[in-house]
């Protein structure tokens, strides 16, 4: 008799401890996210130099790219290697019209729309052709498609600029020389010591576009569609048996992710004023995106934010660290070669393998897991 | 209509595709001597790709593991062979045909031994922990590929490495107005030899029987008391060694190799495996020949479309047969 209330008490205590842990894990996660959001929202005012702004803009764009990839890999369990291809479609679409028609919003709109449409059509084609079969088969098909597109982009140099890429000018509003607000003397108004010029406008164009796109994705995963996608990931046969048309849903989410990636590509093209294989199409970007998704945590939109931030910062600081290491071991054989800053992907690759083994849930997933 | 279908089946069905492709190309190209040169080039290229693709396909068929890091073995094989050939340069480029062949065999066996050892390491360390988990398999093998490519860059550097071709294989045979490179004939012969050995090993030996049974139904083979995991290590090592030999052959074919070689070939290897159907070496051979021929014909007819044509070929075949031409496993 006396044992039962005790056990009940112990259970309640256990639950409350769990509840406490849940809050702590989630609180930490939310604090990190809020910190990242604030840093990105105020980036031009917090970090004055050009390089930091470049990093901040890259983080914004990649959050959208990685989150849209997470829709595929984390929420639906589709492994695609063609995501940078769709990113490239958007970027090249905007870039080619901007070069051909000169700077203007119409060029961005129409070129971007063409890029998005191309991404959509190709995604639908690939999806309908090969999403019926196993995940692994699909991964191979997308890898082949992406590689072919990469070769095409470098060969059709009349259209795409080949390996050199395309340089172009962007609409006047986004040029660094543009004055957003002027004072009585006709000089640019400074806010907290930062000139309100076109550079700021360009950054906020990137930031706000990415914020909207990310919001759309948050809404999608919270909607009934998001739940169906997770059901497909967990048990495809059962989802089919309940009456969801798995192939249709998979193709739909593949197209959706492709369109979102293409939109991110347009923003990236406008920010960089340059589009080439290295910035919009290369396989290195695909690997970055994969690493970011896995580091942040698959199947959590918030993981994308954390993964991108961690990776982007690491890409800058890891190189410095490795240079120091290479200098320190310069007398030894092979080790300086391994520590050469150009070899940073080597260490990232090893880190990646270890992460997949030991922390498959990633940073956000591990923080959130405490509530289970 | 049905009669023609039956007749086609009797003469080999889908196996006729390369022949049909070759005939179509003859019509389009017109000049027979060019056609012969291109066909030989296509066949030898196909055989080299077959070497790389067969292991990948078998490993997938047997153990349901798709190794995205397979191309690392190709690159390593190429670079190991290049290093051996350079080290034995005195034998390699001399007039003595016997020493030429010794140097060549040394290079190929070095690549093969490397493939065996690296394959064993890769299987036990990288892949074993993630059996039956496709998502993590893809991620892990991709990570291993990154590491392997970076290691090649660290060891051999980023600049292209030239591969001295053995003197006995340099030059070409000229029959009338047709010229055929000796190296291509050699590559074709080696690939054919590998196919015959594989075919006999799979169809005429006890181990081959177990491998085929494992492809068909792994659980049942295990239930009958066979250690299928050992079998798998063996197949994986053999597949890696084949990929390394393929890489070595490719290095001699290109004569100037870069660390990107593996990933460039991997596209073709994937296309071959998809076209052929996963798990069967017959399918891999068929796919490899199709891709090799297609690549060479189109490179001649429309140079810019070469790789894209293989992509289109893959799309068309996937529309027609979603599991590839001759799959051994149902996906």
Low-confidence stretches of chain B: none
What percent of residues of chain B are in strands? under 5%
Describe the strand arrangement of the main beta sheet of chain B, using strand numbers. Answer: 1-4
Tell me the number of helical segments of chain B per DSSP (H or I, 4 or more residues long): 14
Written as H for each helix and E for each strand, in order along the chain, the element string of chain B is: HHHHHHHEEEHHHHEHHH
First-residue to last-residue Cα separation of chain B = 30 Å
Overview of this protein structure:
The complex is a heterodimer of chains A (372) and B (331). Chain A has 372 residues and is mainly α. Chain A has helices at residues 3-41, 43-46, 50-76, 83-101, 105-130, 135-155, 157-160, 198-222, 224-234, 236-242, 246-272, 277-280, 283-296, 301-328, 335-339, 344-358, 362-369; strands at 166-167, 190-191, 194-195, 274-275. Chain A starts with a helix and ends with a helix. In chain B, helix 4 (70-87) runs antiparallel to helix 6 (97-127). Chain B is globular and about 60 Å long. At the A-B interface, helix 6, helix 13 and helix 16 of A face helix 7, helix 12 and helix 14 of B.
Short key terms for the protein model shown above:
heterodimer, A: 372 residues, mainly alpha, ABC transporter involved in vitamin B12 uptake, BtuC, two-stranded antiparallel sheet, 17 helices, 4 strands, 76% helix, 2% strand, globular, B: 331 residues, two-stranded antiparallel ribbon
